[in-house]
Structure formats: structure tokens, C-alpha cells
Design brief:
Shape: elongated
Strand content: under 5%
Distance between the termini: 67 Å
Main location: membrane
InterPro entries: PEX11
Biased composition (Basic and acidic residues): 57-69, 77-86
Structural class: mainly alpha
Region (Disordered): 50-87, 107-129
Order of helices and strands: HEEHEEHHHHHHHHHHH
Helix content: 55-70%
Low-confidence stretches: 22-53, 67-120, 311-327
Keywords: Membrane, Peroxisome, Peroxisome biogenesis, Signal
Length: 402
Amino acid sequence: TSLKNSLLLSNILLDFLSSFAIPNQRHLTAPRRVTTCSVRFAKNGCNPITMPLNPPKLDEEQKEEREWGETSTECDPLARGKEPGQHCHRRLPHITGMSNYFSSKVNEGHESDVESETGTAPGRKERKEGRNAAAILHRISLMSNNVSYHDRSIKFLQYISWLGWYVYLRRSKSSFSDSSSRQCGTSSARSVDELATTFKKFFDRFTDARFIFRFWGVASSAEAISTGSQAAEFRDRPVIMLLTKVMASCMLFYHPLEHVAWVGYVAPKAVKDPNRWIAWSCRFWTAFLLTDLTCTHLKMLELGKRIRSGDDREAGRQNMVEMEQPYKKPQNKKELYKATIRALWQLRWNQVRSFCQLAPAIHWSLPNWSSDPWLEDPLLNGLMFSEAMVHAYQTVCEIIWQ
């Protein structure tokens, strides 16, 4: 009996020491029994795992598994209040990480006890929501440093103001067209007219702000011409690269011409006939939109080929994903596939925006667009309002997806 007890104690001691063994140390000559469950936690139903004397050769992943700890197939030794086999995915690290591991496990076990009693772990949901909110705020902060996102936000406010002005202007006209309202001059009709005037002022101020913020568009256009950054994901497609450089060249002329026109609107004596400069700038804008429609169509065809071809799915894809998802890179093929589908949808929405802008661009390109307008104001700004809403939707998707 004493001999059996001695052997039992020696086996228990070997089990305890072997669980803290230094990786790649092979000085033991006797068969080694490795377990992640000591006697202290035997009541949880843990069974030891016996390993052979000469284990097979390990690949890189198995070596990493060996270095950081063995995986228990029975249970987590430090699980509290859980059924055996419920935490089989946990691993027990060796000497280098034991203190951090045990401290985290004890805290995790404490949360498990509270979770079993109350149904939820304290603060876990709040911490997750806080991290998501912080991530979204970080993305918005990064986007605020981009000229393009500045223009998107101001454009959204600009055409929301136009919509308010148009709605209250129609209400004001309908109010004063009524004979009783015209005779009495009711306060409600005057307030509607004042609201229409206020929204019109907001619309004009936001329009000026877009002129000013687009001052840096020349630098971004020149950078796109020199580096081809607008089609970094399609560097192996020379036609697409050429079209993107043509688009950037159009915007390189568009921005300074519209700024000359804006100076003419602010200081009429400095620049004569600013409408003529607007017409020339919008001609380059029209060329940009036509080129963009063609280039976007070619990009969609290329992405469609990559999606249908499983072998070519990763070819030339990483740069594209970095452009569409600049703050979170896909970690596996499934995420890469989802990012590609999202990029394809963004290209489709780009086509919708280009079609909405094409008619207004042609309208402002005409020589007598101010004196003899081609499009009426409701249709003209209504198309631009639709484009602004689509662009706002794209921006929200980018914030959520990244």
C-alpha cells in the first residue's frame, strides 16, 4: 500500500512539473504524461493525456502550439461552475505566461460565476459597445482629415438646405396666392417666408464653403496623376490606369477654373464674367464624369471576373481592399470576399452618382447657362440633391464596414 501511494504521489508530482515544462526540452528518458489538469482541479472531471516517448515531427503551427501550451480535450482546469468539456478550446501556457494566464483566468472565472447567477457578465456588453463607438469615432476623425470627406459633408448640408428652402418657398407662394392671406398678411405666412430666406442663406454659405475647401483639389489631382493612386488595385490593367489619369487631369483643370469664377462672384471687378469660367470648368467636369462612367464599368467587369474565379481571387486584390477599407484589412478569404462584394457595390453607387451629376454638368457647361437655362431649378438641384444623398449613404457604409 505504501509503495502504491508513493508511485501515485510521484506520478502526480511528474504531472504537475510536466505541465510547466520549458518548451523544446527533451531531457526526460521516461514516457511523459502531459496534462493541463492537476489534482487541485481533478474534481472538475479532467483526465490526463498521455503522450508517446517519441512524438512525430511537428509543423510550424504545431510547434507554436507546443511552445505556448498543450490543448486539453477534456475541460478548462480553471473553469468555475461549468460542465466538463465546456471550455475545451482553452490552452495552458508554460512558464513565460503563467502569471498573466492565471490572473486572467481567475477574473474570467469570477465573471462566469456572476454570469451564471445574473445571466450577464458585468460591464462586458458596455465595454464592447464602448470599443465599437470608439472605433467609429476614430474612423470619423481620420476621415475628417481628408479633403474629399470635407466636400461630402458640406455637400450634404448644402442640399439639405436647398431642400428646406425649396419646400418653404413653395409654401410661401401658396400662402400668398390665397386672397385672404394676401389681404390679412398673417404671421404664419411671414414666418414661412422668413424660413425660406434663412434656408437660402444657408445654401449660399455652404456653396461658398465648398468652393473654398476644394482649393486643395489641385494637389490631390496632381498626386493621382503621378502615382495612379485612384486605381492602385488595378495596376495590371493599363486601360484602367490610363482612364484614371485622364480623370485626374480633368480635375486638375476643373479646380483652378472654378476658383477663378468664385473670385469673380466675390469681387466682380477682379474677374469679369465669372459665368464663362464656370462653363469652362464644368466642361472639364463633364469629361471627368464620362471617363468615370467608362472606368467604373471596366472596374466592375474586372471585379466580377475576380469574384467568379476562385484561383484569381487574391491576385491584385489586397491593394483594392486597402483603398476601399483603409483602416481594417481582411484577415481571411471570407473577409476578403466580403470586402470585394462591398467594393463592387460602391462602384455601382458611383455610377448612380455619375448619372445624377451628368445632366447638371452639361447644363452648367453651356455658354448661356445663366441667361438661357437648359434645366429648371427644381430638376437641376433635385438631381444634385439625389447625388448628395447617395454619397452620404456611401460614406456611412464606409464608416461601418471599415
